[in-house]
Design a protein that fits this description.
The protein has 218 residues and is mostly helical. It has seven helices and three strands. Helix content is 50%, strand content 8%.
């Protein structure tokens, strides 16, 4: 086997969270491009791990037959038809955080504006995932960070979504925010209509008027 290119032991790190004491992981990327994530856990917790991740496949269990483990499934990773409460929370989060984007833009706080632009884009991506699910009438696994979404969208939607990624200027932040708002208004209305949800149009309209006032846009 090729020598390791880089190794990480996240359970020793508190960069993002407190270290966990129940398991210990070695994340290894080798110079030939192969990767192995090796996690050591107490033997008595192996079934708990299977319940936490349906994609777990048992290769060898010395205490019990492999048949004790169901076949792997990606069901838990699939985006399902939207629930009404979740839909409204997504809309509310988009409009609430959009105000923070324009606040950072108006104060010339690049990092602040970009960070909140990323949050509203995540809400937009969620709405686009529901759009695809409704079109296909089935749950869809879009992969980590929705990496497969662009394969499900048309060229127009992909170009619009790409335009929500601002370059390093305040002009591009403003343009990206507007594009995100136009897309979210359109897609949220479409999802609400297909699902029979009552869309709170007043919420978005009030926030959009406020944003245009701050941006001195007619």
């Amino acid at each position: 086997m090729a020598p390791p290119l880089i190794v990480q032991t996240p359970n020793e790190m508190n960069l993002y969270r407190e270290p966990s004491g129940e398991s210990f992981a070695f994340l290894m990327l080798f110079q030939d491009g192969n990767r192995i994530d090796l996690t050591l856990k107490p033997a008595e917790s192996r079934y708990l791990h299977w319940k936490q991740d349906g994609l777990t496949r048992c290769l060898l269990d010395k205490d019990n037959p492999v048949s004790d483990f169901p076949a792997p499934t990606d069901t838990d990773y699939k985006t399902k038809m939207p629930e009404e409460d979740f839909f409204h929370q997504c809309c509310n989060e988009f409009w609430w955080v959009a105000v923070y984007v324009v606040k950072g833009w108006s104060r010339k706080e690049m990092l602040y504006a970009q960070a909140h632009l990323d949050i509203i884009r995540r809400m937009l991506i969620q709405m686009l995932q529901w759009k695809v699910v409704l079109e296909k009438r089935t749950s869809v696994n879009f992969g980590q960070e929705a990496k497969c979404l662009e394969k499900q969208l048309g060229d127009k939607s992909n170009k619009e979504l790409a335009a929500t990624y601002a370059a390093g200027s305040y002009e591009s932040i403003w343009a990206s925010l507007q594009t995100a708002i136009f897309m979210f208004e359109r897609e949220s209305a479409s999802v609400a209509g297909q699902c029979g949800f009552a869309l709170n149009k007043q919420e978005g309209a009030r926030v959009w008027q406020y944003i245009k006032k701050v941006g001195h846009v007619q």
